C-alpha cells in the first residue's frame, strides 16, 4: 500500500523506480510502473504481492525473498512493515488473531 508503515497515512507522489519480484510461486497484481503518479485522493492499494508453496514455511520463505526483491522508490509504502511481519516469531509460528497487528504496533510505542 502507498502509506506510511507506522501511521498508515497516505503517501501520494511519483514512483521513481518500480521493480516487481518474480519466480515460481510469486505473483504480483499491480497497476503501477516507474513514473506513475499516485494521486492524493485514491485507494492506497497499489499492488498485491502473493506467494504460495507446498507448505506455509515455503510460502513464507518465498515471501521474504520477494519482499527483498521488491523496489518501490519515490513514495512511502508498507513493504518494510511486511518485511518485519514475515520474520516475526509469532507470525511465523501461526495462529495469530485478527488483533495481532494492532497489538504488535501498540507494544512498539
Please tag this protein with its features.
4 helices, alpha+beta, D-amino Acid Aminotransferase, Chain A, domain 1
What do you see in this structure?
The chain is of the alpha+beta class. Helices cover 32% and strands 18% of the residues. The model has no long low-confidence stretch (mean pLDDT 94). It is flat and about 40 Å long. The protein has a two-stranded antiparallel ribbon with strand order 1-4. The chain has one domain (13-108): 2-Layer Sandwich (D-amino Acid Aminotransferase, Chain A, domain 1), CATH 3.30.470.
Named CATH architecture: 2-Layer Sandwich
> On the 0-100 scale, what is the average pLDDT?
94
The fourth-level CATH homologous superfamily is ATP-grasp fold, B domain
CATH topology: D-amino Acid Aminotransferase, Chain A, domain 1
Give the number of DSSP strands.
Answer: 6
**Nearest-angstrom radius of gyration?**
15 Å
- Helical content stands at 25-40%
List the helices and strands in order: EEEEEHEHHH
Q: What best-fitting shape do the alpha-carbon axes yield?
A: flat
CATH class: Alpha Beta
Protein topology:
Elements: E1 13-14, E2 17-19, E3 26-30, E4 37-38, E5 47-51, H1 56-69, E6 71-73, H2 79-85, H3 89-93, H4 100-108
Antiparallel strand pairs: 1-4, 2-6, 3-5
What would you say about this model in short?
By secondary structure, the protein is an alpha+beta fold. It has a single domain, classed as D-amino Acid Aminotransferase, Chain A, domain 1 (2-Layer Sandwich). It has four helices and six strands.
